[in-house]
Amino acid sequence: MREEESLVDERGVEVDETDVEVDETDVEVDERSVEVDETGVEMDETDVEVDETDVEVDETDVEVDETGVEVDETGVEVDETGVEVDETGVEMDERSVEVDERCGGG
Questions:
Q1: Per the record, where are the segments of Basic and acidic residues compositional bias (predicted)?
Q2: Which of 24, 26, 22 is nearest to 14 (CA)?
């Protein structure tokens, strides 16, 4: 009976060793999962960089469009404003005349 008891004890020890090996395997699987996650993050960052480049191009297009519109409108307005400024200059001259008249009248 002593032999049977020792066999049971040896089997119990073997089962314990197997449990330890299973735990080590779990740790290895966890490490692999982390590596996959890190790669996923890197790929996401690359996508963000591509999106940022698209945004920069869009911003440049917007700036060109806004500037183009402003330059075109301003160009027209500047030309027209150049005339208007002259007309305004005349108005200011008229105001100056009014001021002169007030000074002359005083």
A1: 1-14
A2: 22
